[in-house]
Specification:
40% of the residues lie in helices and 17% in strands. It has 703 residues and is α+β, with helices and mostly antiparallel strands.
Length: 703
């Protein structure tokens, strides 16, 4: 398992999709251009070496054969045209001659079929955007009633060029409509879109052989599992910069999907995290420099070019034009300003606070420790610095400080914690259990190893009422810790099912295995080499960690998580290892759940969250939209009115002054419903413990 694996995965996925995000053409048979990209000899060397690694070291011991070739074919086509906006059914039929040859190609033969497929795709891209430019010759009728099917992932491939023409007529009209909703006049909209579509064509002409090869190799790697990947030499260096945090930017992981740059996650401690305006799944559609620089439209840009715009000198301002998560384009765009800064390790450190909960005439103090990642400064540790930074050391110190203030219970908040160092996950678990195993690892040879509490003689740092708060973005090391607390019956797990990443990766620098013929290099391969398991023998892979008490979350588990990835490795089990656990908490959890449910019925903030989630998921379930500007404007106004009414209902129930506009809402006024509910549950646990309704957690040996 790699440190910051979630960031790596999200950033890499963006590069894969960003390389070829856009462009297109017409006619029933694509023509090969005179400037076709060609494979290089080093690409064949890389393909052969990667194939050897996969067959020898991948956890599943995959055979590179015709069956795999067929799946790689589908994955490669998906990487090129996932939304089926460019290629024709005849193109897909033409590609069929390569379906059972790709395994031979990647193993030892010339890569011409891969580049041939890309040439067809690139021709179609050019056709489509040349057609799109012709649609800007006349202003479209925005009062005509028609619907645009923007989600075509599961639609059949277009049969004729005429079908694509109609689809793209609607796409261009939708682009015009979005600008019109932002009060852009036709002349300005035409200018913006002309530049945008021309830029698409230019980007396609700038694609290099390495880009094509990298896209194909990732189709190959992602067919094995979602976390195996290949990075070209250029992107290997970019990855190194990202992981070292040795750059100045806003502190967010990005990826490109359907021509938009999406925020995947916010890096703890970075400018975006500190500011709080930018959220996961927001779309960046424009970037501007300084407080008054011109906004540059970045729809359809390569991801690395967008990143270059966002990065810049420390303490300088970058402005982002975004579409908030879940919003339809043109409905609620907004602009935010961020001051660039360096992501510092100490700013990612665990933090604490105390929440007071009134109950039965008494104020109960519930300590909260937010753990944004599992970090450890290995460089300082290797240099003999006893004051090296680590999650476990920081949490232990914070526990001591909270106990000095007399807390009645403790919450470890792992929401949005994508993981980090495995050693920190085991060490942090050791703060709450006496001793024993924390996690089991199985490699591709089937050998199982066990990682125990690294400091078994140390006393437990905290033995009071404990809860761990999780959500769908809690992954990897977070899942190891939450599972250990649950399996040892040491605390109650509250929130949402976790991500479900239970695999271990190793990174191979290919330059160490191949002799370079020039200064281009060979890139790097990240390969899944193992899986980890709970002490009970159950994998967290695919299924994640289920909370003992569910809390509603705006994060949709049907769209995010390991289980939605079709190449994810399966859930399975191994033998249970011996460990000491407290008395089962089943009865306690049932009682806590009943009390929580009763409170939630009368909690305005909880009811607000439930309705917000319902509205948000309804909006995101749409696959088409009206191309009538009056209808769209009315829908947008209705959405704003509904959101305002929902907020004012919450405020009325809490005896707060109503708002006239959502722009008057201060983010600090928005409640953290999940944390508040968790605090109430821990208070219940503390009350039950005080009246001895909860049995002492004496150690018992389980097989």
């Amino acid at each position: 398992m790699k440190a910051l694996e979630t960031r790596r995965r999200a950033w890499f996925a963006g590069l894969l999709l960003g390389l070829l995000a856009a462009p297109v053409i017409a006619s029933d048979q694509a023509t090969v251009s005179n400037d076709d990209l060609l494979p290089e000899s080093r690409h064949e060397n890389i393909g052969e070496l990667v194939t050897q690694f996969i067959q020898k070291s991948h956890y599943m011991r995959v055979s590179v054969n015709d069956e795999l070739s067929s799946r790689v074919m589908d994955r490669y086509i998906e990487a090129l045209d996932r939304n089926r906006m460019y290629l024709l059914a005849s193109d897909i039929e033409y590609f069929e001659e390569y379906r059972y040859r790709l395994d031979d190609v990647v193993r030892s033969q010339p890569l011409n079929p891969v580049f041939d497929m890309f040439s067809v795709y690139r021709s179609r891209v050019r056709e489509r955007f040349e057609f799109a430019l012709t649609q800007l010759e006349n202003e479209p009728d925005l009062l005509l009633d028609e619907d645009y099917q923007f989600d075509r992932e599961n639609m059949p491939w277009a049969i004729t060029t005429a079908e694509l023409d109609e689809l793209w007529r609607q796409r261009v009209k939708n682009d015009v409509l979005n600008l019109a909703l932002a009060d852009k006049p036709w002349d300005e909209s035409r200018d913006v879109l002309t530049k945008r579509y021309t830029r698409y064509l230019k980007r396609m002409d700038q694609v290099k052989s390495d880009d094509v090869f990298e896209t194909f190799m990732n189709a190959f790697a992602h067919t094995l599992d979602p976390h195996s990947s290949y990075l070209s030499p250029r992107n290997s260096e970019e990855y190194r910069i990202q992981m070292s945090l040795s750059y100045f930017g806003i502190g967010a992981s990005l990826q490109t999907e359907d021509d938009y740059v999406h925020i995947v996650n916010i890096i703890p401690g970075g400018p975006a995290s500190i500011d709080g305006s930018l959220k996961p799944e927001d779309k960046i559609i424009g970037v501007a420099q300084g407080t008054d620089g011109a906004m540059v439209d970045v729809i359809g840009w390569r991801l690395d070019d967008v990143v270059d715009l966002i990065r810049g000198p420390v303490d300088t301002v970058v402005r982002l034009h975004i579409i908030p998560a879940g919003a339809l384009p043109g409905n609620s765009d907004k602009e935010i300003s961020l001051t660039r800064g360096q992501v510092r390790l100490e700013e990612q450190a665990a933090k604490s606070e105390i929440i007071t909960v009134p109950r039965d005439g008494r104020e109960w103090s519930i300590g909260v420790i937010e753990v944004p990642s599992f970090y450890r400064d290995y460089r300082a540790l290797s240099n003999g610095d006893k004051n090296y930074t680590s999650t476990t050391k920081d949490v232990k110190r914070l526990i001591g400080e909270l106990e000095e203030q007399g807390i009645d219970g403790l919450i470890i908040d792992l929401r949005d914690n994508g993981g980090g160092h495995l050693t920190e996950a085991t060490a942090l678990s050791g703060l709450f259990i006496d001793n024993g195993p924390v996690v089991q690892l199985r490699n591709s040879n089937g050998r199982i190893s066990r990682l125990d509490d690294p400091d078994p003689v140390a006393r437990v740092a905290y033995n009071g009422p404990l809860a761990v708060l999780i959500n769908r973005f809690s992954a990897s090391a977070s899942e190891i810790f939450a599972a250990a607390i649950q399996d040892y019956a040491r605390g109650v797990i509250i929130g949402q099912k976790t991500f479900g990443k239970g695999t271990v990766q190793n990174l191979y620098s290919l330059d160490q295995y191949l002799q370079p013929e020039d200064d281009k290099g060979f890139g790097q391969l990240t390969l899944t080499i193992g899986k980890y398991y709970r002490v009970t023998g159950e994998s967290t892979q695919h299924r994640g960690v289920n909370p003992d008490i569910d809390l509603p979350s705006p994060i949709d588990s049907d769209e995010i998580g390991e289980s939605v990835r079709d190449s994810a490795l399966p859930w399975d089990t191994i033998q249970t290892t011996r460990f000491r656990a407290g008395e089962p908490l089943d009865t306690t959890i049932h009682s806590l759940t009943v009390r929580h449910s009763e409170r939630a019925k009368d909690d305005p903030n909880f009811q607000y969250l439930m309705r917000y989630i319902e509205d948000d998921r309804e909006a995101r379930s749409r696959t088409s939209m009206s191309l009538n500007i009056e209808t769209r404007r009315a829908e947008r106004e209705a959405d704003l009115v509904r959101a305002l009414d929902l907020e004012n209902e919450r405020r009325k129930a809490l005896s707060l002054e109503p708002l006239e506009s959502l722009e008057d809402l201060d983010d600090d006024e928005l409640p953290d419903v999940q944390l508040d509910q968790a605090a109430g549950i821990v208070t219940d646990l503390a009350v039950m413990r005080e009246v001895k309704a909860v049995p002492a957690q004496t150690a018992q040996i389980r097989p």
